[in-house]
Design brief:
Number of domains: 1
Helix content: 25-40%
Oligomer: single chain
Number of helices: 7
Shape: globular
Strand order of the largest sheet: 1-10-9-4-5-6-2-3
CATH topology: Glutaredoxin
Largest sheet: 8 strands, mixed
CATH superfamily: Glutaredoxin
Strand content: 15-25%
CATH architecture: 3-Layer(aba) Sandwich
Length: about 230
């Protein structure tokens, strides 16, 4: 029963993810280093396939919203992430598979890239289940992956506003299975570059190796020159 439930939930997340990808994609497809590594130059605009994420055409502007972080302080996404590569993900701590997998793969990749790269990246997790995901719950869950991950919560109206501002579909409660409520939500990470635009998104199934490959590119990318 448990395996069937997880399989059903995974299919929901995958369907939701690819449904939004169809709308967004254009024609083209813990924080410590382990010694010095050379950072590669970003892929050229005429060779976007060098990125493992999906190119977005036109790019998505970074949303402007304020939620509550895990220290119960207001967190303005726009002003707090300026000058950083920002990986934004909407999910929930009771998610059986996609959410922990995305967080684990990003955390593992950040542990492998050079320290100078990791320091230029902010990972922001926004709960889609504010009833159960208090600031304390979110902080405890994120610390399983990386203590530098930023967790945000708020009331349902605030979360919905953040989803709308990000231009993703609104999360929805699913019929409870064995009394454990599930949430159908976008299962991809939106990657905002330092120009405050998301030129790439990373769907469910993005691996640790994919992140390790792309993060140095994203940090050194200058889309204005392309």
């Amino acid at each position: 029963m448990l395996r069937a439930r997880h399989h059903k939930m995974k299919l929901r997340c995958l369907c939701a993810c690819f449904g939004v990808l169809t709308l967004l994609l254009g024609t083209s497809s813990r924080v410590a280093g382990h010694g010095p590594k050379e950072t590669p130059d970003p892929p050229r605009a005429d060779h976007p396939a060098a990125y493992r994420g999906g190119m977005v055409t036109p790019p998505l502007p970074k949303p402007k919203f304020t939620l509550t972080d895990t220290s119960n302080a207001p967190y303005d996404l726009w002003s707090s992430t300026g000058g950083y590569v920002t990986l934004l993900f909407f999910g929930y701590t009771h998610c059986p598979n996609e959410c922990p997998l995305q967080m684990f793969n990003i955390a593992s990749a950040l542990d492998k890239v050079p320290t100078g790269v990791a320091e230029q990246i902010k990972v922001v997790f926004v709960t889609t289940d504010p009833t159960r995901d208090s600031a304390k719950v979110v902080r405890s869950w994120l610390d399983n992956f990386d203590q530098r991950f930023i967790g945000l919560t708020g009331n349902e109206a605030a979360i919905e506003g953040a989803e709308r501002a990000t231009a993703i579909f609104l999360a929805a409660k699913a019929i409870p299975v064995n009394g454990d409520s599930e949430v159908v939500h976008a299962a991809f990470v939106v990657a905002y570059s330092k120009d405050n635009l998301a030129h790439l998104i990373y769907p469910s199934g993005t691996t640790e190796e994919d992140w390790e490959h792309d993060l140095p590119y994203l940090v050194n990318e200058d889309w204005r020159s392309q």
